[in-house]
Write a sequence for this structure.
């Protein structure tokens, strides 16, 4: 990218692909980074590692730890261990635990598992999860050393957070670039989740203030292109979709130049 910003192909943008397929798709589409969603971490890790080695694509994130009131489970530990083994930069984490102190304690436990690796926790706030404001996400991240907040343009918009409010250096490791159409804000958590998982549009094709969003981020943080779209999935094969999204994201980042 002209300004040094690197783009990553998010797993959700090509969700029908196996994790190692996401890595290969990213390479063919021109992404230097990619993220993977692991349903069976230990079984899928060798293929992902092989794809990373063969393509040179670097692993930005592994998805997803969903924390609940029960805290860190064995499944979460396996995912964290695998993220560390794969040298993923970040372990994407969300919390569905309404107790903030317990969420903070769970993140601290995850951080202990990751200690000594290059992998850091990225806490993603969303309007339909327990961490549903930027302030809460920042507060929790600051309480667990090494943890960062993962801003997603759509989620910030739906939390009614200003996209152009600057982020402090060191609190953001990467961000998710996306867009959404002009439909009114969904009225309940289930509808908000449906929009996020099915109705996104390519960056620049919607109504979000992406110029403000990018300006507010610390310099040169990677951007994961996160566009879960039933429409795009029906119209484009994964590689064609990935190329379309890379071009759209590049145009937004460079101001159309």
């Amino acid at each position: 990218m002209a300004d040094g910003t690197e783009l990553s192909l998010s797993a959700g943008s090509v969700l029908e692909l196996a994790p190692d397929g996401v890595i290969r798709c990213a390479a063919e589409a021109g992404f230097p980074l990619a993220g993977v969603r692991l349903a069976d971490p230990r079984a899928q890790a060798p293929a992902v590692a092989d794809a990373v080695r063969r393509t040179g694509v670097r692993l930005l994130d592994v998805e997803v730890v969903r924390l609940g009131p029960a805290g860190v489970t064995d499944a979460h530990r396996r995912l964290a261990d695998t993220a560390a083994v794969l040298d993923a930069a970040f372990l994407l984490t969300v919390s569905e635990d309404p107790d903030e102190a317990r969420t903070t304690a769970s993140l601290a436990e995850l951080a202990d598992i990751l200690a000594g690796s290059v992998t850091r926790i990225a806490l993603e706030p969303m309007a339909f999860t327990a961490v549903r404001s930027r302030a809460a996400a920042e507060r929790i991240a600051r309480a667990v050393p090494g943890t960062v907040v993962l801003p997603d343009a759509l989620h910030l918009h739906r939390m009614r957070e200003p996209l152009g409010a600057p982020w402090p250096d060191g609190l953001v490791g990467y961000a998710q670039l996306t867009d959404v159409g002009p439909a009114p804000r969904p009225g309940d958590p289930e509808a908000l989740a449906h929009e996020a998982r099915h109705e996104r549009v390519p960056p620049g094709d919607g109504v979000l203030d992406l110029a403000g969003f990018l300006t507010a981020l610390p310099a040169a943080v990677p951007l994961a292109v996160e566009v879960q779209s039933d429409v795009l999935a029906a119209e484009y094969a994964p590689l064609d979709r990935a190329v379309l999204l890379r071009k759209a994201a590049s145009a937004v980042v460079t101001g159309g130049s």
Summary: Strands lie at 7-9, 33-37, 58-67, 90-95, 120-123, 148-149, 175-177, 179-180, 200-201, 223-225. The chain is about 40% helix and 15% strand. The longest strand covers residues 58-67.
